[in-house]
Amino acid sequence: MSARPRSLRRNLMAFFISVLLISFSVGVYNVLYYQFSLQEMSRLMTTSRQLWETQKNLNALKADVDQYLYSRNSTALQSYYDNYNLVLNDGTALVTSVEYTSHGVKMKNLGNLLYHLLEKGEETVSAKRNEQTQTYIHLHEEVEKEHRYISEYIQEIMTTDLKDNAVLYERMRSENQLRMTLSFILFLSVILCLLYIVFLYTKQITRPISQLADYADGAAEGNYGITVDTRQPSIEFSRLYNAFGIMLEKTRLYLDSLKEKQMLERELADQQIKSLTMSNALHAAELKALHAQMNPHFIFNTINIGAKIAMMQGDDVVCDYLENAADVFRYNLAGLNNASLEEEMSNVTSYMKLLSTRFGNMLHYEMLDKREEKAICILPRMTLQPLVENAFLHGVSQSESGGSIRVEIENEGENVRVMIGNTGSGFPPEKIKEILSEPDMKFLPPIDKGHVSGIGLSNVIKRLRLHFNMDNPLDIVVSDGWTRVILILPTALDKEEAV
To answer: Angle at Cα 52 formed by Cα 151 and Cα 124, nearest 5°?
Structure first.
C-alpha cells in the first residue's frame, strides 16, 4: 500500500525550516566561538592595562611625595591626595577581585603592598607637616624602598603574565586554527547539505512538471490515449495529473465524436451529391426529352400554312415564311448548350414573324433594344422563346381581338434587364407567388399542340436558377392590362467565361 502523498506546501515549509535551522546553528556556533575568543583577549588586555595603570599612578604618587617634601607646595599636596585616591582604588580592586590561582595571589599581595605604601606615604607627609625632619627623612627612605620593591614586583608580575600570555596566545592561536578549520568544514557541510536538500525538493517539483510536459507534447502530436500516472509525491501534483488525465479522456471522446460526426456528414454529403447528380441527370434528360419532341403538329401547321400562303400571296412571302421557320427549327435543334442574348433575340424575332404571318393583324409585336453599350450576356438556350410563346398562348390568344407582345432590353447597372410583356388575361397574384416559389407545370394551362415545344415557364425558371445560381431569376408583374415577365441577366467578359 503506497504512502499517501504529502502537500507540496508542507514539503516546502519543511525545506525552508530546515535551511533556517541549519543556518541558525552555524551562525550561533560562530558567534559563540568569536565571543569566547574576544573574552580571552579582553581578559589578557584587562590584566595588563590594570598593572600598567597601577604602575603609572604609583609613580605619580611617589613624585608628588618627593615634590611636597622638597617644596612643601600646596599644589603638590593636592596632587598627592588625588593620586593617593587613585592608588587606593587600584589596591582595593586588586584585593577584592581575588582568584584562587597563583596569579590571583600575586595580585592580592600587590594590593596589600599598595595599602602599606600608602600608610608609609601618609606618615611621611604628616611628619613633614609637623616638621619632624629626622622622622620624615627616615620614612621617605622606606617609601622609596617600598616603591622600588612594588615596581619590581609589578614588573615581575607583568613579565610572568607576558610569558603566560604568550603561551596562552599560542594555545589560542592553535585552537583558533582548529576552530576555523572546523568552522570551514561545518560551513562546507552545510552548503553540501543545503545543495542536496535543494536538489531533492527541486527534483520533487521539476520532475512531475517535466513528465506533465511530455504528456502535453504527446497530446499535441495527437496521442490522446496516454495513460497518466496520478501517483505523485505531492497532493497538488496528484490533483493536477488527475485533472490532466480527465481532460485527455474528454478530449479523446470529443475528437472521436467529431470523427464520427464528420464521417456521418461526409456520408450524408456524398448521398446529397449523388442525389443532386441523379436529379440533375434526370432534369437534363427531361429537358433533352422536351427539346427533342418538337411538336409535329407545329411542323404540320407550319408547312400547311406555307402551302396556303404560296397559293394566295406568291413566292416572296412564302420564301420569308419558310426562312423564318427554318431558323426556328435550326435553333431549336441546336441542343441545350448556352447561347448569347443576341442569338436568343434573333430566334424570338424569327418565331414572332411566323406568328405574325399566321395570325396577321390579330398580333402586334415589337422588340426594343435600349442598350447603349451591348455587353456580352450568356444564358441557357431556349430561354426567351418559351417566354414569348407563353405570352402568346396564355395572353394574346385568349382574346378574340388579339393583342400585343413587347420585348424590351436595357442596361441596369452592370446587368441587363429583359422585359417580355403581353396584353390579355394575366395570372392571379396567388398563382404568381406559387409559380415563383415552386414552379411546376401543374400551375399552367395545357400547351396547345400547335406550337413549338413542351418547354414551359417552370423549366425556364429552373434552368435560370441553375445557370446563374440565383433564387429569383425572374419576376412576374401584372398591371394596367399587361403581364410582364422581367429577367435581370448578369453580364460576362466573354462567352467562354459564362459557359
So the answer is: 45
* DSSP helix/strand/coil, 314: coil
Distance, in Å, from the CA atom of 321 to the CA atom of 317, rounded to the nearest integer, reads 6
Identity of the residue numbered 464: L
| Prediction pTM value | 0.43
Q: Which helix H or strand E contains 93, and what residues bound it?
A: helix 74-96
Same-domain check for residues 306 and 273: no
Q: Are residues 419 and 283 in the same domain?
A: no
Taking alpha carbons only, the member of 391, 393, 421 closest to residue 407 is 421
Residue 138 contacts by C-beta under 8 Å, 6 or more apart in sequence? none
Residues near 394 by beta carbon (within 8 Å), at least 6 away in sequence: 424, 425, 444, 445
- Residue 164 shares a structural domain with residue 286: no
Q: What angle do CA 72, 75, 76 make, to 5 degrees?
A: 60
Summarised one tens digit per residue, pLDDT across range 187-228 is 788 788 778 777 777 777 777 777 777 777 777 777 766 776
In terms of domains, do 36 and 161 share one?
A: yes
Q: For the chain, give the number of residues.
A: 499
The three-class DSSP label of residue 147 is helix
223 domain-assigned: no
> Up-side HSE of residue 251: CA atoms within 13 Å toward CB?
14
Give the number of other CB atoms < 10 A from CB of residue 387: 22
Residue 137's domain is classified under what CATH number? 1.20.1440.210
Is residue 2 in a domain?
no
**What does the pLDDT look like over 410-466, one tens digit per residue?**
999 889 999 999 998 777 888 888 878 764 444 344 444 444 454 667 778 888 888
CA distances from 132 to 73, 81, 126 (A): 17, 20, 9
